[in-house]
Amino acid sequence: MKRKTVEKIDAVGSVKAAKGKRGISDTSKESAHLLHSIVQGFSIPAFVIGVNHKIIYWNRALERMTNIPMSEVVDTNQHWRAFYASERPCMADLLVDGAENRIPKWYAGKYRKSELLEEAYEATDFFPDLGEKGRWLRFTAALIRQANGNIVGAIETLEDITERMTAELTRHESEQQVFSIIEGLPIPTYVIGLDHNVIYWNRALEKLSKIPAKDMIGTNQHWRAFYASERPCMSDLVVDQTMETIPEWYGGVAKSKLLEDTYEAEGFFPDLGDKGRWLRFTVSPLHSSRGAIVGCIETLEDITERELTERIIFDSERILHSILEGFSIAAFVIDKNHKILYWNRALEKLTRVKAADVRGTDQQWRAFYKKARPCMADMLVDSALEKVPQWYSGKYQKSDLIEDAYEATDFFPDLGDSGCWLRFTAALIRDFQGELIGAVETLEDITEQRLAEDALKRKGKSAS
Q1: CB of 300 within 8 A of CB of 187?
Q2: Could you write out the DSSP letters of every residue in 402-447?
Q3: Are residues 432 and 335 in the same domain?
């Protein structure tokens, strides 16, 4: 009757087999040597412990990573020394003890069950006591069983992922910095990826659109902030590189003068806010380090107040123009740079100078004088009242009715066929803040009145 072969793994990794009194089995020694060679040949750091938690193998890759030689730790339970400042269990220890329930205590939020191996767990953690500045390791611990199912130990492999984790953390920090910048922008801003899903939706846009970021991030429904029904935003067209379709959706779009591949436009959004809002929006593609488009950023400026102000000004100017045109009294308006803004029909008829010939010029003098010289309105605009007597001595007076206005009467020999007597008033024009914006001058033809007055004077003299 043959005796059973009994195998055991000793502390230094040799396998002893007893066949009666025949000594160590050559086959068992070869298996142990092969296992030792395999573990030592791992390019990945690894160690093996027995059920008594003592180290059986500690390979060269792990020696290099930890700076702890195998001779110092084999046949001890001090594998923790390589990773921690004080004694505590490693993942392999917990598996050997069948204490999987204690894994969360030591690796909470850092571990998971292996998808590839049964009775194995994976984890990622930072080890501040490993190396000079600490190292990030991804490690896997798995039970080792005999053919009969008995547990004989556990193996733990460790992969140094410090460079990758540092890059990911740097990228994460960079993303957080970008997020903080975008979040802090006072200008409503959002970012979409190539899939058109929203990546960023800042506080300013939350306030403008009344849609919180949590309802928008991860969706492709950014159109909801601006339109009543689904349609592409400018950012969608830029991400898809379908710029030729932009005119179908947006009028008055222009390429930015400051940034390449950037488009700007203005428009009224009736579904934004209570009464609609005017927005000026700018869209720019985002590129990877290799130049590929990875997304798009759109900034939106609420220009409602500006647009309303401009429309009020436009309407006011149109009304003013209509009033001036309807004057039976000749009038012109200059700005503070002496350029003619208005030249009404009554003045065209009086001076025979067409508005189209002088509007936008500073040649108002042409209607009244043979050579360039200031009109009353010019002197008021320049605040050069001390020059008034030089040109209108004995002919002018300050207006009793209007502030910042002067009146005068003079004869203009070059006006009309035989000259013309005019009574004219020049007054400053100021904006709502009191800032000077120009002057208006009105002119009344009093030739017949002066001729009648002169005739009466002559008649009175002849009667006396």
Answers
A1: yes
A2: STTEEEEEEEETTSTTT-EEEEEEEEEEE-TTS-EEEEEEEEEE-H
A3: yes
Residue type (1 letter), 435: E
Partners of 429 in beta bridges:
438
Give burial (CB, 10 Å; 0-12/13-18/19+) of 156: buried
Residue 427: CB atoms within 10 A of its CB come to: 20
Per the structure block, which two tokens stand in for 48? 């093996």
- Quick: pLDDT tens for 274-316: 778 888 888 988 887 778 888 898 888 887 766 555 555 555 5
DSSP state of 79: G
**8 Å CB contact between 29 and 93:** no
426 and 349 within one domain: yes
Q: What is the CATH number of the domain that holds 88?
A: 3.30.450.20
Q: Are residues 441 and 410 in contact, defined by beta-carbon separation less than 8 angstroms?
A: no
Indicate the residue among 130, 160, 190 that finishes a domain: 160
Beta bridge partners of 443: 330, 424
Q: Tell me, yes or no, whether 4 lies in a domain.
A: no
CA distance 211 to 208: 8
Provide φ and ψ at 310, rounded to 5°: -65, -40
In a domain, 458, yes or no: no
Q: DSSP readout, 439-459?
A: EEEEEEE-HHHHHHHHHHHHH
Neighbours of 203 (CB within 10 A): 16
Query: In this structure, are 148 and 64 located in the same domain?
Result: yes
- Whether 441 is covered by a domain: the verdict is yes
| Torsion angle (degrees, nearest 10) of CA 364, 368, 370, 376 | -60
Q: Which two tokens stand for residue 334?
A: 């200059």
Q: Are 9 and 39 contacting, i.e. CB atoms less than 8 angstroms apart?
A: no
| 328, 298: one domain | no
Domain-embedded: residue 168: no
Overall domain count for the chain? 3
- Rounded to whole angstroms, the Cα distance separating 443 from 132 reads 92
Domain that includes residue 419, residue range: 310-452
110 dihedral zone (left: phi>0; alpha: psi -120 to 50; beta): alpha
130-171 pLDDT, tens per residue? 878 888 899 999 999 988 889 999 999 999 888 887 777 666
